[in-house]
């Protein structure tokens, strides 16, 4: 079941809308396999390419996807475990300022993404309907565990589209 609009902040709606209908665990699993093939098809020689000055490089976009999935998965786990303390936001640009993605290979970042997704699937697969419906507060907004799983999926789909349309044309 897809999350309703009261299960996530409105600025996540474009991500949620990217996700196809179906079992979110199956979607995340299959999406991870397809995404890995896509990442590995990107030539290492263009990993430091940014489509315009001031934009992240391809490697940084991939690294951001790792960071964001980790943050959203932590939020999902915390809320699944009934955490009542509001969870902090994260400033993706500040994270990027303190990363070393451009010194790494696309293969290395792609491998990291595979491990993150596999770990998350192992956790998310244990969530029943009651857990998926649990809500908490992250970055000052109410969000459900289900909403976070859809955000993870939609965020990756969004950035793959950006990579294809702006970086790899």
What does the overall shape look like?
globular
**Number of continuous helical runs:** 7
Portion of residues within helices: 55-70%
Which series of helices and strands comes N to C?
HHHHHHEEH
Instruction: Catalogue the unreliable spans.
Output: none
Portion of residues in beta strands equals under 5%
Rg over C-alpha atoms, rounded to the nearest angstrom: 16 Å
Q: Determine the N-to-C terminus distance.
A: 35 Å
Characterize the largest beta sheet: strand count, sense, and whether it forms a barrel.
Answer: 2 strands, antiparallel
SS-based class: mainly alpha
Strand tally, please?
2
Strand order of the largest sheet: 1-2
Average pLDDT works out at: 97
């Amino acid at each position: 079941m897809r999350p309703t609009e009261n299960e996530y902040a409105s600025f996540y709606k474009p991500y949620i809308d990217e996700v196809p209908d179906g079992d979110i665990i199956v979607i995340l699993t299959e999406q991870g396999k397809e995404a890995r093939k896509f990442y590995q098809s990107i030539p290492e020689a263009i990993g430091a390419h940014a489509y315009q000055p001031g934009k992240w490089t391809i490697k940084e976009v991939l690294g951001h996807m790792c960071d964001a999935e980790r943050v959203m998965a932590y939020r999902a786990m915390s809320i699944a475990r009934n955490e009542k303390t509001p969870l902090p936001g994260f400033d993706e640009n500040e994270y990027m300022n303190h990363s070393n993605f451009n010194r790494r290979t696309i293969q290395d970042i792609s491998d990291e993404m595979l491990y993150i997704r596999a770990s998350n699937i192992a956790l998310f697969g244990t969530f029943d309907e009651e857990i998926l419906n649990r809500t908490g507060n992250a970055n000052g907004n109410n969000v459900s565990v289900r909403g976070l799983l859809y955000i993870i999926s939609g965020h990756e789909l969004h950035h793959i589209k950006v990579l294809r349309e702006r970086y790899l044309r």
